[in-house]
Structure formats: structure tokens, C-alpha cells
Amino acid sequence: MKYSLRKTMPHALFTPNFKYLALLIVVIKSAAGFAQPTPFDKKYVDSVIVLLPKMSDSKAKVEQLRLLASMHLMVNPALTIKYAKEGTAIAERIDDPVGEIGCLAQSAFCYAQSGEWVKATNDVNKAIPLCEKYDPAKLIYMNNIMVIVAHTKGENEMALQYSLKALRNPAFGSGPEISNWPTYMQLGRIYYILNRLDSSRYYADIISMYVKKYAKAIPDLARNSYILFGNLAFSSKDYPSAIKNYHLAPDEIGLAKTYQILNEHDSAVFYAKIGLKFNLIQKDPLGIQESSKILAKEYAKSNPKEAMRYLQIYSDSKDSLYNSQKLRQLEQLKLNEQENKFELQKRLTADRNRFMQLSLGGVLAFFLILAIILWRNNRLKHIANQELESTLEKLKTTQAQLIQNEKLASLGELTAGIAHEIQNPLNFVNNFAEVSVELAEELDESVSQGDTKMIQALSHDLRQNMIHIAQNGQRASDIVRSMLEHSRTTTGEAQSTDLNNLAEEYFKLAYHGIRSKDPDFNIEFVTDFDENLGQVKLVPQDIGRVLLNLYSNAFYAVKKKQTELNYAEGDQPPTLWLSTKRLKNSVTLKVRDNGTGIPTEILRKIFQPFFTTKPTGQGTGLGLSLSYDIIAKGYAGEIYVSSEPGIFTEFVICFPVN
């Protein structure tokens, strides 16, 4: 398992631009773990090193030292330890527990990375009590460091327990999604090492999402992700995919072991040497062992002397990892842990004493301020109540006016539809009347000339015109009578109604209403009515108002899509689908359009009063709210919506029937 600190970000991201650097630091610190390597910026480092001796001990100085430590993780681990320890010492002196946690995290991560697991564990043990009291979320990162420590010691089952402990921390998942990446990474790699490949692939699938979104922001985690992908491909014998991912990392040891199994000696040796050189600089014992083992095996075939040299490097690295001094230091950890707890208890006691002193002064100040506030509130209470009552009255008046405006807007759409409906038969009446006048004149001439055949023909045409005039006059009369019935003030009493005809009739009115404003507007109307629906007891004016609102919104959506997006070739043209269905104890009515759809984030708000997505002056935000009230309160029914942005919107009305 590799924990490389190699710099893999594009050169353009390392330009000495302070604004960009500050932004990148914030992203890395807050999102993916505050001890992740920070890109090295020489100009910034040089300027801070000059300023540090002049700075007094403060939280700002601790943060600068922590940042310097993080920057040197990739280029000089020894300086990382130096700056982290200086920051820790200052943080202890000035009582800056958050800064102390940050500096301990830097040194612990560096120690764990280089195989100094005793020192890493010691720093983590010092940080844990501080995390528990001041920043519990940082316990996630401490557990992730201990994963590295346990793996370095060869205790991979213990490493898995530390990873799961990080995953189960109550704070896990509460921050930005990118902050989960390190933990998922640890789990994927540990499961791979334990040969539990299904679990490893599960977390690799999760990690792939982070790589796509955040690879440039945190290249170190992206590198380790590609290594995991390569390892899984290697284990499946998908060597081309393994090589591709190892190159993306890049991971020379992964490339070396792949070329080794492919019997490509030169490539295996080439990449193993690069990996060994890098891991010697980083003091990564596992990396040293793995690369030297590959080289020893390759040279065993052609150069036994070189093979022995690399075996010696392998042996020396293993001895340094498990030498007697480290084992003695491990015993000392328990004593250090007890001393740390004692020091923390002393600090907590001092904090408690300061708190008690401040509390006493605070209580006295509180009562004094409270007395002043009560006196002042007593004086202003009467004035505030009067202003509140006045404001409330104005709000009620405004709401009533807006509701009335919404009703008038619906009436206006209805009136426009009625006018259009009546205009058609009137046009027929006018046209046939004009033609009849001309026929009468011709009839007079024929009578004076005694042309019997012409008289009969003209008389027949005139009679037919009169029939058409009578029919269209009756049609206009029927429309007026029907509209008068619908516009009559409702008594609130339900009556048996043909819901299919009502829905279709109000569609025509709404459609003619919008056509009177926009003659170029067209929409296909598709119905799927339940023929067995029968008569439904309802108040036609109420349901008609609901339907007008739904139709108007559908027209607005398809028109907006035509204007802004256009309908792609092969798409269904602007269409409104209307269907009814009678169930055992209820009736369902669906209105669907293929317009712009409704974004998911506002879907739950559309029935709220005064909420609208239309431009100012084109909607009050009350249409759907009033519709909801009519269905939910007037009929004990339900109205709900489903939508996919850019595809469709569907409103479903369901109310019980006897």
C-alpha cells in the first residue's frame, strides 16, 4: 500500500499567486483533511521564513508553521517535522489547542509516511484528547493516520478497524463531500491488501467519483486513487488497464511489478529503479522494500551481484522498521499517553478556573444589562405592538388584493377564451348574411326578368344560407348559455358533472385565451378519458379554476422551451396530455406537458403562496396555491407533481367520490 507525497499537479497550479494559493489551501484544509500535502510555493515560503523570527508567539504564527510543514511534506520531510514541532511547542505555550492539533497532525502524518510508526503513534495519542474536547471531527483524520501506522507494522486487520472507526465517526459525512475521500481511500486500499476484492471495488467505485470532480484540487489523493484502480486491475489480470492507471498516478512500483509479470525485463528494472530512488528520498520503508525486491528478482536472472545488493537494501530497510530501539519506544508510548492525559487535565483545570472567574463577572454584567433591557422593552412594548398590528392589517389587505388579482387573471383568461369561441360562429353569421344580401339582389333581377330557373336556384341558395345562419346563431347562443352557467357565482354546492367534457371545454377556453394574445402559439392536445367515468359530483367553477391554472402553466412551459431551447429533431412537438381514471372510491385527473420542466430544488415550493418562477408582472404565485386549497380543503383530495427538467411536468389531481 503506497502513501506517496509525490508532486503530480500541473506546473501552472504552482505559480506564486498568493490569492490562488490561499484559496487552494482553504479548499484542501477544509475539505479533504487538514494534513494533506499543500502545493509548495517557493516565493511564499521564502517570504514567510523571513517574517517568522519577527512574529510574536500567536495563533497566526502557529498556523504559518503548520502551513510550512504541510508544504514541505512533498519536498523535504525533515523540514516538515521541524516546523510542525515548533508550531506544537508554541501552541502549547499560548494555549491554542486547535493549532496544536493541526501541527501534531502534520508531524504524525510525516512520521507515519516514513515508517516512524512509534513517533507517529505518540503524536496521535497527544492529539486525540485535544480533538475530543475541541474538534471531534479531526478524530477522523487521526484514525486515518493510524491506518498508515498499523499497515506499516504489518497489522492490516487493525488498520481496517481504524478505517471503520473513521467511517463511523458521528462527524463523518457532515462536511463537504470531498472530506470523505481520504477515509474511502483507506478502506479501498486496506480491503485490497486483505484480498477482500469485492469490498475494495465497492469503495473504488465511490472513489472514482471524487477523482473525476477533484483530481486537480488534491493530486496526492488522486494519485493514490489511480494506484488503487491499477492494483484492482492487476489483481484481475487486466494488465493494460493496470498500466494505464499506474501511468496516471504515476506509480513506478506498480508499473515495475506489471512489466515484471509480463516478462518485460528492461521496463521492470527501469521503473523499479525510479521507484526505489524516490522512496529512498521519502524514507518510505514499504516502498523501498517493494522496489528493491523487484530489482533483486530481475537481476537474479542476469547479474547475481546486483541482485545481492538490492537484497541487502531490502534487508536493511526491514531491519530499520522493526529495530530494537523502536520496540523500546513502543513500550514508552503507554507512559507518554498517561503523561499527556495528566497535562491535559492540568490544562482543563486551569481552563475551568478561568471560566469560573469570567462567569462571575459575566453574571453580574448580565443582570445589569438585563435590568436595562427590561426597562427599555417595557417602554417600547406598547409602540411595537401598535406597529405590529398595523403591519399585520396591511399584510392581510395586500394578501386579499393579490388573491383577488389572481382570480381576476383567471377570469381574464376565461373571458378571452369565450370571446374567441363566440367569434367563430359570429364570423359565419356575418359572412352568410353578406352573401344572402347579394343573392336577394340577384333574385330581384331574376324575378323582373321572369327567369324561372335562376329564381329557383337563387331561392335554394338563399334558403341554405338562412339554415347556416340559424345553425351558427344557435351555436353562439349555446356558447353564451354554457359560459353563463360556468361564470355564475358558485353556491359551493356540488352537482353531477361530466368531468371529461369539463376538462376538454376548459382546455379550449384556455387555448383560445392564449391564442388571442399570441396567434402563432400552437400545441397538440392528446386525451385519454375513461369512458366509464360517469357523472362526478363537484363544483364545476372550482375544478374549472384549477384546470385553467394547470393549463396556463403548461402553455407557459412549452412556449418557454420553444423560445429558449427549441424542440430537437425527433422530439414530440409541444403537447399537452389530459387523462382521467375512475378508481374504486376516487377519481384521478392528470395534466402533463413536455415543456421546460421544474428544477428539483424548487419542486417542493411550488404550492407555497406567492412562490413563482415567472418574471415580475407575469405571475403572482397564487395560482397553484389556490388550486391546492380547492382540492385539499374543498374536496379532501390530493394534488401532487412530478417533473424532469427539460423533459416533462405532470400534475395529478385525485379526490374521493361516493
TrEMBL record:
Sorted UniProt keywords: Kinase, Membrane, Phosphoprotein, Transferase, Transmembrane, Transmembrane helix
Domain Histidine kinase: from-to ranges: 417-658
Enzyme Commission (EC) number: 2.7.13.3
Keyword Transmembrane included in the entry's annotation: yes
GO molecular function, one term: kinase activity
InterPro entries per the UniProt record, alphabetical: HATPase_C_sf (IPR036890), HATPase_dom (IPR003594), His_kinase_dom (IPR005467), HisK_dim/P_dom (IPR003661), HisK_dim/P_sf (IPR036097), Sig_transdc_His_kin-like_C (IPR004358), TPR-like_helical_dom_sf (IPR011990)
Origin: domain of life: Bacteria
Catalytic activity: ATP + protein L-histidine = ADP + protein N-phospho-L-histidine
Cited Pfam families: HATPase_c
Enzyme's top EC category: transferase
TM segment ranges: 355-375
Keyword Transferase: yes
Protein name: histidine kinase
Biological source species: Dyadobacter arcticus
